[in-house]
Amino acid sequence: MATWYDNLKKPPFTPPKNVFGPVWSLLYILIFSALIVYFLSPEKSNLIPVTFFLLIHFAASFSWTGLFFGRKKILAALLDILVIDLTLIVVMTLFFQVNTLAGALLIPYLGWGLFAAYLNWGIYRLNPDEKGTRQ
Predict the structure, then answer these.
(1) Could you tell me if 113 and 85 are in contact, meaning their C-beta atoms sit under 8 angstroms apart?
(2) What is the pLDDT of residues 35-90, one digit of tens each?
(3) SS3 of 77, please?
(4) CA contacts within 13 A on the Cβ side of 98
(5) Long-range Cβ pairs for the range 118-121 (8 Å, 24+)
(6) I want to staple 41 with a disulfide (CB 3.0 to 4.6 A). Which of 26, 76, 78, 99 is the partner?
(7) C-alpha Rg value of the chain to the nearest Å
């Protein structure tokens, strides 16, 4: 049975749905590893900003699925994913200042986040609502 997502027009390079699970499994391992490496580092002079940006980042990350799939608000999800990517760049920068490995472990996550923003933008651009306006 086709879902709402299945019926959307998608941009070039959209992977098949069965790719998302394995990719996210690997990314979760890398994210968790980066957090462990950072928080086990002896010197964390930037702990307060890291914590602040991580809270914003994870709040935005958890809200994206509900915005996109639950409420079908493609534009709101696109704005949300931009917050996700921007806060990730800040977190990576702060991680690199403390531990190069912690920052480097997040590089694939940033790549996927930028790719996801491209996909979200493409879906927004290709799928106007019934009135001919963007969702």
Answers:
(1) yes
(2) 999 999 999 989 999 999 999 999 999 999 999 999 999 999 999 999 999 999 99
(3) helix
(4) 23
(5) 118/11, 118/13, 119/10, 119/11, 119/14, 120/68, 120/74, 120/77, 120/78, 120/81, 121/11, 121/78
(6) 99
(7) 17
